[in-house]
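Table S2 (text version). Query chain:
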Amino acid sequence: MPERSTTLPDDLRADVQTLWDYHDMHHELRPADVGIGLGSHDLGVATFTAELFHAGMFPLIVFTGANAPTTVERFPRGEAVHYREHALELGVPDDAILVEPEARNTGDNITLTRELLDTRGIEVRSVTLISRPYQQRRAYATCKKLWPEVDVICASRPLPLDEYIESIGDVDRVINMLVGDTQRITVYAERGFAIPQEVPSDVEEAHNHLIDKGFTMRLV
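Corresponding structure-token output:
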């Protein structure tokens, strides 16, 4: 198998950076009732969730996620289960973590986490959604649709684009995911899965340029 590149080509940089900046909600961190770590292939989500817990941003964590085709090999016992184990290694106490192991998409992440907290009798007025950087906007729009009464902010590891690509180890994967998440902002709102979000013209242009370059693996 050829080695995957972690170098962002110069001719793609401007378009990729445009999408990267668009998905960052630029929310200011503040204390919340619960931090929700959204399962994915990126273990950095669990790392940053643990860091925010230790910083006193929330007293309770919910890790949510089963598996997707992109994660089953890396996290065979499920995304949320592996996230929990990683957070325990980082010093988060076991009694501060709940696991929701069934969610298979972002809508499930929100709905099933809400149901889990309800069954535990935990009142939630505010949440911090911790996700991959390019999942922030979609996670926000989904939460506002499915849990509109809760105060929600989004957070991700504060890495520059090149450092994030290096941490994932595959530039093509990151670009494909960025392109797919950008499409989902519009498509999922049209399907009633999320609230609408404005897509500026420069984002549309960058998105189309990258599709034309062949980054179509994550399109729906």
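Notes on Table S2: Helices lie at 10-23, 44-54, 79-89, 106-119, 136-146, 161-168, 171-190, 201-212. The two ends are 27 Å apart (CA to CA).
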